[in-house]
Amino acid sequence: MTELTEALRRIRSERPLVHCVSNIVTANDCANLLLAVGASPMMAQAPEEMADIAAISSAAVLNLGTPDAERYELCARRGKLANELGQPCVLDPVGAGASAWRLANIEKMLRQFTPAIVRVNLSEARALLGEAARERGVDSASDADEAARAECAAALARKLNAAVLLSGKADHISDGTRNSRVEGGSDWIPMVTGSGCMLSALCGAFAAVEPDAMRAAVLASNFWKQCAAQAERETQNRGPGTFHIELINAAHRTSLN
User: Fold this and answer.
1) Residue 156 structural domain
2) Cα distances (angstroms) measured from residue 20 to each of 24, 40, 72, 124
3) For the segment 49-104, what is each residue's pLDDT rounded down to a tens digit?
4) Which of 54, 138, 229, 246 could form a disulfide with 234 if both were Cys (CB 3.0 to 4.6 A apart)?
5) What is the tally of structural domains in the chain?
6) Mean of the per-residue pLDDT values for the chain?
7) pLDDT at 15
């Protein structure tokens, strides 16, 4: 039994509750993907119940894609609760350098808790490394070769003391010491809004059953690349809408193999 197969078996048998503070664009996709792999999503966002939800969760996934002041405070509180409970927390700092306000709030948040995994694209990683002038909103810049992407992931991991999954045509995962590269997937992935958010949700599911954050991120990356490749084959050029649906179908089929 491969490591990925075993992790998926554990997700299905344990049905970990993954608490997602999601964004309004991708919440439904993230919830359906977690259900497809056998996890139990909880999309709770009321500050009044954060402590109660945290107490029954196996992992937290904090997505900052549609932020406001209250959302930043909420995510900071949830991240601190995860640290206090010894619970894995995944941070997706969507569009980290799209505005000075957004970057400042994310940096403030990162001073309040330490995520286990940070899932970023290249633009977001550069912003968090102090290269915000090169930021291009929520879409990833493409002006870097794979060696530069790998170093960017490792540098951010060292800065944040977390495992970093820098997604792209090839995903680069690093904890600042160990480094991994995952290839494959599909060129259709950028045509689906929220494919990165869904990968972050998967990181939460795998971190719930794999205590090594670096390994959990590598497992999530490998799984999502496999799903994307399978979805492209099933789509047969019918378009991005079909591909979107087939991603969820592929996640369910692959998790049962």
Assistant:
1) 3-256
2) 12, 10, 14, 20
3) 999 999 999 999 999 999 999 999 999 999 999 999 999 999 999 999 899 999 99
4) 246
5) 1
6) 94
7) 98
Strand partners, 19: 42, 60
Name every residue whose Cβ is closer than 8 Å to that of residue 145 and which is 6 or more positions away in sequence.
none
The tally of CA atoms less than 13 A away on the side-chain side of residue 235 is 23
> 0.85 exceeded by the pTM?
yes
For residues 123, 30, 179, 186, the Cα torsion angle rounded to the nearest 10 degrees is -80
Predicted confidence at residue 141, as pLDDT, reads 52
CATH number of the domain that 184 lies in? 3.40.1190.20
Can you tell me the distance from the alpha carbon of 193 to that of 205, in angstroms, rounded to the nearest whole number? 20
DSSP summary character for residue 136: -
Express each pLDDT in 161-191 by its tens digit: 999 999 999 999 999 999 999 999 999 999 9
